[in-house]
Amino acid sequence: MSLTDLKGVGPKTEKILNKMKIYESTDLLWYFPRNYDIYEKPIYINQIDNRAIVSIDGIVEKSINTVHANKLTISSTTVRDENGDSIKVSWYNMPFLKSTIKYSMRFIFRGRIKRIGKNIVLEQPAVFTLQKYSEKINNMQPMYPLVKGASNNQICKFVKESLEINRVSDYLDENIRKKYKICNLEDAIKNIHFPENFESLKCARKRLVFDEFFSFIYQMTKLKENEIKIPNRYKINNYNISDNVIENLPYELTKAQKRVLADIRKDMLSENVMQRLVQGDVGSGKTIIAFLAMLDIAGSGLQAGLMVPTEVLAKQHYEDMCKIINDNHLSFTVEYLTGSLTAKQKREIYERIQSGQANLIIGTHAMFQEKVIYDRLALVVIDEQHRFGVAQRAKLMEKGVTPHTIIMSATPIPRTLAIILYGDMDISIIDELPAKRLAIKNCVVTKDYRPNAYRFIEKQIKMGRQAYVICPMVMENDMLEAENVVDYSEKLKENLCGDINVNYLHGKMSAEEKNQILEKFEKNEINVLVSTTVVEVGINVPNATVMMVENAERFSLASLHQLRGRVGRGKYQSYCIFVSSTDNEDKIKRLKILNESNDGFYIASEDLKLRGPGDFFGIRQSGELQFKMADVLADGEILKNAKEAVGEFIASGNEFIDKKFNNDILIY
User: Fold this and answer.
1) What would the pLDDT profile of 475-497 be if each residue is shown by its tens digit?
2) Which of 202, 167, 150 shows the shortest CA–CA distance to 22?
């Protein structure tokens, strides 16, 4: 059914929905909420703690006062609860409230708490009669990802209508659903949008996570049917060049690095094509292993490619590889291939790749566009979180290319789950950090420590260093009391010395804008970079020595560990400051796990133990397996069940076509 068949969807609204990748009414069913707003019982004013949104049952103490300031109309009053405590309440640009909210009237006021010094204000609250609010208590209102021009109420309305007119058929029979204790798909879709209670939400999420894993593993299984024991066309047994490079490195490889390099060399000499996953914690030295394997390939007259998630990291790797080649007087040609190059530049690079003149190619997903034709591509290395799906792999096969493949991951996935996710890949783990790497010094602090943190950042910048500051949000959000990169940048400019250059970065910027900011940061033209978690992977700035994370309690420990990995990459002592905006002892205790260990596997394990049911839609761990809803660690048991179910499903002669998940599934 067309979107314009829905009530209230005209050409203008249709364009807005298209920006959200919603093109048909059925797409709304799969446009899942990012979170839920839960209406809780009203609390007393003296019970207000670090909650962002509260509901207060109170009596209006005086008539609303309205003033005009900076093009705003500010209406305010005070409200008293039955304990006799009062709180100031204010609204912006809502002067009409003066005629409806009057002295001595009783309402439920639900809004955001704002702290101004020692005082607190209830800002922009919705106002309910006691009866109306009682109908909403414990209701879970879906909160959807939005773009400019779309409202949450609007999406809720469209989703409800889509649920009424569309039917969802279930590809799993009742026996499989009973065996794995999952609900039917239609109920899951209804309850993920409008859950009756928390239990119905849990059931819905479990089913949709199961489906997402099922789709992934089904596609993996089908892909492997065509890839079993691919003959090795490129047997490599000459390591003279890379061995000489190792001798000339300014450091010695760790035992773990040597072991993994030996695994790769053994694979490239075997009868079948190499498919290997190299896991290693942040800073363990995966990249140099990739470089050495690529040099082995180039030394045999073949081509090797390294694909990374960002253009900035691609350029850094390109420059590092060029330096190795120059320092060792090698004659290889290295190409840098990304989407932002001009058409002429790309055309010239394509020619050098096709002719075989280019030995080593480093870039982003642009390396695997249709126009790129390789001469003798013998090795593909995929670094960090990059999406390399079924379509891309199929394109390589269509070109008649069956290269060796190395996937490099900093995500600490347990081996049992990694075997399922990476199918026929062999797994190597770099479980040792370089001996001379200085340990990052960590601290977990409250907001009161901020002035000290700012002075410390200033001191580091005066020494020539740089700093990251991470915020959980891009812009201010009325529903959340958390720092955002836009406002925080201005705050930093006010609190740091005037000659310190502060700028911000977030995922909603265009690729060109992001690259420009990151390049300036890499050149130390930006001293402090305020960012969302977009810098979690794909960034390597050895001169950055401070990582300050605001509202650290809102992130998973695994995500914080990845962020911490952005510093400590050079020769300077580095520091990580985790700022907690809560005084909740359990949350602070959780953050202090980061002080106990730099081991990503240990941190991820402890993180999983401490996660509660409210973490369903929180900020997940980083890593290359970015599912829409599933979390590889938290949903490990569901992953194992989905693996078993796929085997049963295929054995029964069934076929599965997933139109909803497979565009985002990552298959290597």
Assistant:
1) 655 445 567 888 899 999 999 98
2) 150
8 A C-beta contact, residue 36 and residue 201: yes
Type of residue at 322: C
Dihedrals φ, ψ of 136, to 5°? -95, -15
Q: Tell how strand 72-80 and strand 53-60 pair up.
A: antiparallel
Order of strands, edge to edge, in the sheet holding 426-430?
334-337, 360-363, 303-307, 377-383, 404-409, 275-280, 426-430
Contacts by residues 183-192 (CB-CB < 8 Å, ≥ 24 positions apart): 183/207, 185/211, 189/29, 189/30, 189/163, 190/163, 192/32, 192/33
Rounded CA gap, 47 and 55, in Å?
Answer: 11
User: Which 3 state secondary structure label does DSSP give 114?
Assistant: strand
> Could you write out the DSSP letters of every residue in 592-604?
THHHH---HHHHH
Q: Residue 401: which of 370, 386, 379, 423 has the closest Cα?
A: 379
CB burial class (10 A; 0-12, 13-18, 19+) of residue 592?
middle
Find the angle CA(413)-CA(418)-CA(419) to the nearest 5 degrees: 160
Task: Return the closest-CA partner of residue 401 out of 320, 328, 304.
Answer: 304
CA–CA dist 209, 628 (Å, integer): 9
Name the DSSP letter for residue 496: S
User: Rounded to an integer, what distance in angstroms lies between the CA atom of residue 128 and that of residue 108?
Assistant: 5
Residue count of the chain: 668
What is the number of other CB atoms lying within 10 angstroms of the CB of residue 128?
19
Report yes or no: 34 and 144 within 8 Å, Cβ to Cβ.
yes
- pLDDT tens readout for residues 518-529: 889 999 999 999
| Whether 405 contacts 380, CB under 8 Å | yes
Q: What is the DSSP letter of 236?
A: -
Please name which of 327, 329, 320, 262 lies closest in space to residue 293, comparing C-alpha atoms.
262
Helix (H, G, I), strand (E, B) or coil at 378: strand
CB distance 150 to 17 below 8 Å: yes
The single residue listed with the structure tokens 């279930």 is: 170
- The per-residue pLDDT of the chain, averaged, comes to 86
Closest CA to 101 of 123, 126, 81: 126
Mean pLDDT, residues 112-132 taken together: 88
- What is the residue whose two structure tokens read 């066309």? 233
3-state secondary structure of 17: helix
Phi and psi of 139, rounded to 5°?
A: -65, 145
Euclidean distance between CA atoms 220 and 468, whole angstroms:
38
Least confident stretch, 47-61, 148-162, 563-577, 587-601: 587-601
Count other Cβ atoms within 10 Å, centred on residue 398: 9
Dihedral of CA atoms 340, 341, 342, 348 in degrees, nearest 10, equals: -150
Query: What's the Cα-to-Cα distance from 370 to each of 356, 367, 387, rounded to whole Å?
Result: 17, 9, 17
Is residue 351 within 8 A of residue 333, CB to CB? The reply is no
DSSP string across 173-213: -HHHHHHTT---HHHHHHHHHS-SSHHHHHHHHHHHHHHHH
